[in-house]
Amino acid sequence: MSVLGGATRSPSLPVKLSLATAGFLFVAVPGCGGAEGVQAGATVRAYVVQPLCAEAERELRRESGRAGDVRVEAVCLPRSESKGRLQLATVGANARRATEDSTTVAFLEPPGRAGAFTHPILETAEIPWITSSSGKAAMAQLLRAIDNAGSSGSLRTSVSDQLR
Predict the structure, then answer these.
(1) What pLDDT does residue 83 have?
(2) 57 C-beta neighbours (distance < 10 Å), count
(3) I want to staple 35 with a disulfide (CB 3.0 to 4.6 A). Which of 41, 43, 47, 155 is the partner?
(4) Three-state DSSP class for 132?
(5) CA 138, CA 130: separation in Å to the nearest integer?
(6) What is the tally of helices (H) and strands (E) in the chain?
(7) Band (38; pLDDT cuts 50, 70, 90)
(8) Please, what are the domains in the chain?
(9) Do 95 and 121 contact (CB within 8 A), yes or no?
């Protein structure tokens, strides 16, 4: 309750909803920040920038969408260059989208100028990236890294260690 001009007032409905939502997220999303202690059967995501997506998805289907006991999904992102020009808004939005997902284990991108902008964003969130001109090769490399990752701690960190 708050006191305003001598009268006692209950918090407004939007304030109550905001507090309830924050409390729910605090309880329901304890694993944010890197796919901590991923269990067998869990699902993780790789964010894939065009033009690598079609090949990456085919490679993922070829492997039944799995790396060991972990299910892997590819999230296709828009191309960050248009008519030879780098679209910085798209570059930033793509990297931020990956950082906002607690199940992200890697970011796959083609070689190019965009990496100079995406890598600092991904590095801050401790998301490993794979730069390749082949979506198939990038996805195969990621699946091997997930399969070889240790079972303790953060899968994201283990994948990063495997990719070094």
Answers:
(1) 87
(2) 18
(3) 155
(4) coil
(5) 6
(6) 6, 9
(7) low
(8) 43-163 (3.40.50.2300)
(9) yes
Reading the block at residue 112, the tokens are: 């190019």
Residue 39 has what pLDDT? 65
Q: Is 35 helix (H, G, I), strand (E, B) or coil?
A: coil
**Predicted structure pTM score:** 0.76
Residues making up the chain, counted from first to last: 164
DSSP-derived letter for residue 74 is: E
Report the pLDDT value the prediction gives residue 94, as an integer from 0 to 100. Answer: 98
Measured torsion, CA atoms of residues 164, 75, 54, 91, in degrees rounded to the nearest 10: -70
Alpha-carbon torsion angle 110, 86, 105, 146, nearest 10: 10
CA distances from residue 101 to 9, 75, 77, 125, 131 in whole angstroms, order as listed = 38, 11, 14, 10, 20
**CA separation for the pair 49, 154 (Å, rounded):** 24
Structure tokens at 101: 């997902």
Range in 90-99, 132-141, 144-153 the model is least confident about: 144-153
Output the six-digit token pair for 44.
């993780």
Q: Give me the residue label for tokens 């991923």.
A: 38
